[in-house]
Amino acid sequence: MKIEGVVTALVTPFDQNGRVDEKALRNLCRFQLKESVNGVFLLGTTGEGLLQSKEERKFVTKVAIEELKGKIPVLIHVGGTDIDEVFELARYAVDSGVDAITSITPYFFKLSEREIIEFYVELSHNVPFDYPIYIYNFPDASGNDVTPEAIETILNKTKNVVGLKFSSADMVRMQEYIKLKKYGFNVLSGCDQLFYPLLSIGCDGLVSGNANILPNLYLSIFNNFKKGDQESAKQLNYYGSEVAKLFKYGNIPNIKAGMKLIGLDGGYVKKPFKNLTLNELEILQREFTKIYNELKEVV
User: Fold this and answer.
1) Which of 202, 215, 232, 237 pairs as cysteine with 35 (C-beta 3.0–4.6 A)?
2) Pairing between strand 186-189 and 161-166?
3) Going by CATH, does the domain composed of 5-295 fall within 2.60.40.10?
4) How many angstroms separate the CA atoms of 223 and 77, rounded?
5) Residues facing residue 75 across a β-bridge
6) What's the pLDDT score for residue 249?
7) Peptide bond into 13 cis (omega under 30)
8) Does the predicted TM-score (pTM) go above 0.90?
9) Cα(101)–Cα(136) distance, rounded to whole angstroms?
10) What pLDDT, in 10s, does the model give residues 137-158?
11) What is the pLDDT of residue 13?
12) Which DSSP string do the residues of 72-97 spell out, in sequence order?
């Protein structure tokens, strides 16, 4: 399995009581399908996956597969601190027909490199030997870092760890991950503002929270890059960076508020997050309208 292009890190819409809003979730899946994104990544950071119960995560998986199975690749994040639950969610994803799973390292507790390696090796043993697994490395959030050397060891010990999502602006580290492509390794970034520079050094694609709002912008960066129009890709990346800055680099309440501004129901956030105040929403709308009007001239 290899994914290229733009994968939307889909939000999970909740109602006022913190329950998954099934209708809104189905509509968001259909919107992404209509926009022709290259994949959907659910229950990660933007999807508030770690704030949801096991049963909620299974429900989101079920709904997404009903909407998207066989149409675009679906990646489900199964990570957490309860290892047995991680493995149960992984097996549920397989049984549900999910295309691939991804997992952050167990977080909060500082793990040794050996422990990180063994976590991913054991995860690989809990799904079929040919079922794709993506490592999700977000060291600022998890407190643990999956180094290129650790990944090389994991690749030597498994047959189904096929790729990585790296959520960091560290271009030097990304270059080290890209060297692993010689093994057929799929390298994705979670850094929207650096999409064009990352493509230029060999990154395969972007897992984007801002693609909940403007998937066409990030798709245009990728498509122009692929057809060799570097100037247009660079120009569009400027707007991609401004959008990422406006929505505070993946701040979930801001992304859901931004979705409202274009008529999409991203739902409420889950506690302890707070939805934007009316004043905050008005400020965001003014700033977004300015960028949005400029974008209509170039996308």
Assistant:
1) 215
2) parallel
3) no
4) 26
5) 41, 100
6) 61
7) no
8) yes
9) 10
10) 999 999 999 999 999 999 999 9
11) 98
12) S-EEEE---S-HHHHHHHHHHHHHHT
